[in-house]
Amino acid sequence: MTNEAKTNQEETTQQDTQEEVVEEVFAEEVEEDTTTEGSTNELTAKLEESENKYLRLRADFDNYRRRVQLDEEANKKFRAQSLVTDLLTSLDNFERALQVETENEQTQSLLQGMEMVYRGIQDALKREGVEEIDAQGAAFDPHLHQAVMQESTPDAEPNTVTAVFQKGYKLHDRVIRPAMVKVNE
Amino acid sequence: MTNEAKTNQEETTQQDTQEEVVEEVFAEEVEEDTTTEGSTNELTAKLEESENKYLRLRADFDNYRRRVQLDEEANKKFRAQSLVTDLLTSLDNFERALQVETENEQTQSLLQGMEMVYRGIQDALKREGVEEIDAQGAAFDPHLHQAVMQESTPDAEPNTVTAVFQKGYKLHDRVIRPAMVKVNE
């Protein structure tokens, strides 16, 4: 008797179809005649409700599966984001340390070893999808660059980056740190 | 009529319940008597089949959701594994480069800067769940250590690690590289 109100309308149209079936069977089984059209209609309505419930659940399931798949793809693409972000400060310090100018042979040899290490780290990051943001000389783009200084010089095109104070990085198409730059007005 | 064979057995037990309902309704609606017990039984069987189909789908959906949740937890825990594994060679080279002994002030200053960078990278890895495997002096464990040499010395306990040629690393509870060691027989 539940859902009856909801299915009353469906019942009316169902009834026609049901009556056809009923008349066919009637001829053979008339002697066992202990049911009524009312209970048949009720059962038909319940069956329809049950089938609808199944179809709604199947649609929910399909949507859920699709969403899980999209989530998995995004998660895989950006899985290293927290570690990468965490490593950027070390990369900055690494680059700064490599700026030493020296005539001393031992220092030069240490620098060479450290440059190899630096490139190894950069290569590992590139393989994960990390990319440096082009900044020096580029047209200023507020999505990629953070302007921390402005200047007005006729030597450079207006609205271009004239200096980079800190490198910016993207992971795939996502900016994980904008470049800190000086912009020509 | 589909699934009829499958539900024939269920129909038999359903029939009893159905007959009770039918008898109640019969009294009021006897004048519209155009249905048969046969079609009612058939509908009841179909309804039961439909409800079972729904319950099976719901169980599948629940299992799928549980599995997705477990997958997500594991993926989150080990999300950085490929980048970490890729960085281990650079870490090895970094450590080797830091072994320089020097009296030169400029080299010392560069070394200090590089040690800071190294610690920064180590800290970032630790925050992601990366841990060095204890090896030197530990009891040999084939899950954590890879024996590349054996020796027989009375100075050390038998079956302990007497030298580490390459550090091993774990990510959470997962060994991502065993330590390469020398073992006392």
Automatic annotation (TrEMBL), chains A, B:
Region (Disordered): 1-20
GO cellular component: cytoplasm
GO MF annotation terms: adenyl-nucleotide exchange factor activity; protein homodimerization activity; protein-folding chaperone binding; unfolded protein binding
Coiled coil: 40-67
InterPro entries: GrpE (IPR000740), GrpE_CC (IPR013805), GrpE_head (IPR009012)
Gene Ontology biological process terms from the UniProt entry: protein folding
Family classification: Belongs to the GrpE family.
UniProt protein name: Protein GrpE
Gene that specifies this protein: grpE
